[in-house]
Each structure stands twice: as C-alpha cells, then as structure tokens.
Amino acid sequence: PFAPGSLSFVNVAELLALVPLPIPRIREEAPDLGILAIDDLGDVTLQAHTNSAPLMVHLPLYEQAVDYLVLLQQRGAQLQSARFLPYQLAFDVEKLMWEMDFFIRHFLEGFRGVTISTEVREALREELLALVRTLSAEPRVVCHRDYHSRNLMVTPDRLVVIDFQDARMGPDTYDLVSLLRDSYVDLPAPFVDHLIDRFRTARGGAEDRATFNQRFHLMSVQRNLKALGTFGYQAVARANPAYAQYVPRTLAHIRRTISIEARCTRLRELLAPLLPELA
Known about the structure:
Structural class: mainly alpha
Strand order of the largest sheet: 1-2
Helix content: 40-55%
Oligomer: single chain
Number of strands: 6
Distance between the termini: 50 Å
C-alpha cells in the first residue's frame, strides 16, 4: 500500500503530461492495494524494433526520440515547480561520484575480480572526481535519467516513454548519451552524428560542434561506466546474468570515447591495465 499521490511515477507522470510527452496513462489508482492500472503499450521496445530491420528504417523513430528530449528540456525549464520531484533532485558531484564508486565496487572488483592497489584506487577516484565535477557544473535540465531503447515503446502512432520515475536535473547531454551510446543497440557513427546535429539545431545551434562533442564525450564516459556498474551488480549481487551480454558493447563505447577525447588520456592510462579491452 502507498499514500495517494505519493509515488514518484505518478508525480513525474503529471509533469511529463504537461510537457507534453507521450506516456502511459494512469487509468486507476488503488493505493490501499498497492496498484496502479496503466496503459498496456504492447511488447515492442525501440530495442526490439531496431534489431529487427536495417537501422536506417528506424531513423524517423530516433529523430522522434531526439525531438522529445528537446521538448522535455525546453518545456521542463518553463514548468519548474517545487511540486514536482525532478526539480528537487540533481546529478550533483555526490550522486555522480556515487555511481563511479558503484562501478569500481560492482564491476571492476565484483564482476571482473580485479584487485586494485590503494595507490591506483586513489588515482582513479581522483580522475573520476575531476570528471564528475566538470559534469555537475554544467547548466541543468530535466533528465529522464534512463532514456534508452528499452524505455521507448513503439506503438502504431508514435514512441511512448516509460520508466521515467527517477527523473532529475542534470546536464543536457545526459539523456542524449543514454540514447546514442546505448548498451543495447549498435548505432553507426553517421547515424549518431546526424542525430546530434538534429539535437543541436533544434536547441538553436549556438554552441559549436567541437565544444558540444567534448561535453557529449565526457558524459558518455560517466554514463557508460555507470552502466557497467549496474551490469556487474545485477550479475553478481543479484545473480542475474542477463546483463553480462551487454558488457562488450558498453566497453567498446568507452574505448572509442577515451581514445579520441584528450581529457580522458589519464583516465585511459589508469583503466587500461584493469580492463584490457580499453587498451
């Protein structure tokens, strides 16, 4: 049982309905039974849809997903109110660094069984702390927080957004990285570049591409390291091996990013001996 109107899902749904974004409607609420009755959106996620046909067939769906993000960020700024939970939470230094420690504990040590010396651990945390300080200092927008192909449902009319109950404030690249550096699907570079340009243009294009790319890359490193922590936690602490299959793709995302981003040179030097895939 829960108190009426107390669930974060309900609170965030009210905000997203005002944006408006397409989300499952809450049909009935039975707090005494602990039940919400919401729309059945079927079984086809964007992940499943994308893996079923050539990728370019799905370009309009990804363009729609990017347009949703622009709308969420722009309208989210206009709708700011203490009434809604996302405005009370943020990806600050503490939260982002907690996720990096989660990666060290549950992926490096738990899943991979890596032994990390005190010296290396301190150096790694120092480098990760510098990364998250940069990210947390960016202007904040409303973030879905888990905006990837598994949380976008393909319906006959349009994409519908689900799993939004953990929404909070964060960098404008956070959700875009989740969508385009997705652990669950492979997106070719030209496809990603087109969608990044679409995002930048829709937001006015005031920021030059090089500056935006650096912010995107840094967010990508943090987001994908966090994903590895989640996969390691699921595999070891929860005895759920299903997520292990997504580790190679996520490591590949990180390797490509830290190889081209100058600010990640030291991080690569520290991680490569611990994770040979990043060498």
